[in-house]
Every structure is written in C-alpha cells, then in structure tokens.
Amino acid sequence: MLVRAYLPKIMTALFGGLFIAAGILTFNNAVLFDLLFIGVLVFTAIICRKDINVLGVITIIFLLRTFEEITWLYLGDSNLTKFVIYPSCIIISFYLRYDWAAKIFLYIGILASTTELYWLYEDYQAPQIYWNMTLVAITLISRNLIFSRVSITEHYLSKIMRLEAKSINLDWIIYRLYGLSLILQIIVILEYLIRHLFGASELVLFYYSSAYAIRAISTISIWAIFNESYKQLAPKSLKA
C-alpha cells in the first residue's frame, strides 16, 4: 500500500530529473535530442496504444514534428520561398483568428511581409526571418489541432477503436507550451526586425537565449507526455 501511494510521485520526480538531464546533456546535439524526443513519443504510443486520447495527442505532435524537420531540410533561401511563406502565414493566421495567438501572428505576418518587400526594394541583405515565420505557423497549427483534438479523435478514431474521446490534462499542457513557444518565436522575429530596420546590432538578447528557452520547452514537453501518460495508465496498473 505504501509503495502504491508514493509510486506516482517517485516516478514523476525520477523521470523529471532524467529528462532534464537529457535536455542539458544533448543541448549541443540537436539530432540526438530529436531522436530522444521521437523515441519517447513512439515508446509512449506503444504503451498507451489502447488509450485513444493519449494516442491522439502523440499523433498530432509526431506528425507536426516530422513536417517541421522535412521543411527544414527542403526549405530554400530564395525570394520565391518568401513569396510562398509570407502569404501562407497570413492566410493561416487569418483562418485561425479565433485564437488570440493567431491574431498576434496576423499582425506580425503583415509587418514582416511589408518589411521584406521594403528590403527587396532597397536590395538589402535581409535576415532569414521566413524560417521563424514558418516555425510560428507550424506551432500555431499544432496548437489548434491540440485544441480540436477531441473532435478530431471522435471523427477519425472513436468509431474504429470504439473508445470514448475526452479532454485530458496533457491536451492543455501541450496547448499552453505551444502558446509559450509561439510567443517566444514572435519576439525573436520582432527583435530581428528592430535590429535590421534601426541598425541596433547589439539587440541580440532573444537571438541567443531563445535556443535555451526552446530546448527547455521541448524538455518539459517530453516530461509532460511521459508523466501524464503514466498517470493515465497508473490507476489501471495498480488495481488490486
């Protein structure tokens, strides 16, 4: 009984410490961290394969993470790329405008697009803001897919697996973490614009610190996925 009572807290502390250590140790090795992230997703999906709600969250994260990696590999640095990305970002943010984050991104998209046109006219060597814009767009889509996860799960999986889709705590944790990541990326974009428009070359606070913040958010995401999934399974596993 004593072990059963304290096992969830012990597991939370143990794996929390392990994931924090992994996030720190792999900071200079993005590929290794990505493999760790995907490994946790796959492992959790396997042990929670009968939990339609956890599986739904993991599927959304995995698909969007894969799309982000593919985009990074094949996204070229050209004016054509920018002419595709900026209108796409504006369209996405307008479509999702019921989300306060999308409204902010809509204004940022218009500002960044106008600035890019100005730089093109002035033949200025513009920074690669389009990649940050792409990250924000992917994060915004992910955030709203998580928000609509229950209805999506009911539509595509409930009838197949004959299980009830419901909102779980993991939905809201990931939803908020996506919001935090999105705001951070928007701040980085604004810092880029200010630095290059006003010649403030010393303004690089978020340029350098954002990598640490994003890694911290990703590490928390890994821990949350594993921890919340364990909480879903623990009551079933510890039954007398």
From TrEMBL:
Q: Where are the transmembrane segments?
A: 7-25, 31-48, 55-74, 80-97, 104-121, 133-152, 173-194, 206-226
Q: Which domain of life is it from?
A: Bacteria
Q: Which UniProt keywords apply?
A: Membrane, Transmembrane, Transmembrane helix
The identity of this protein, by name, is Integral membrane protein
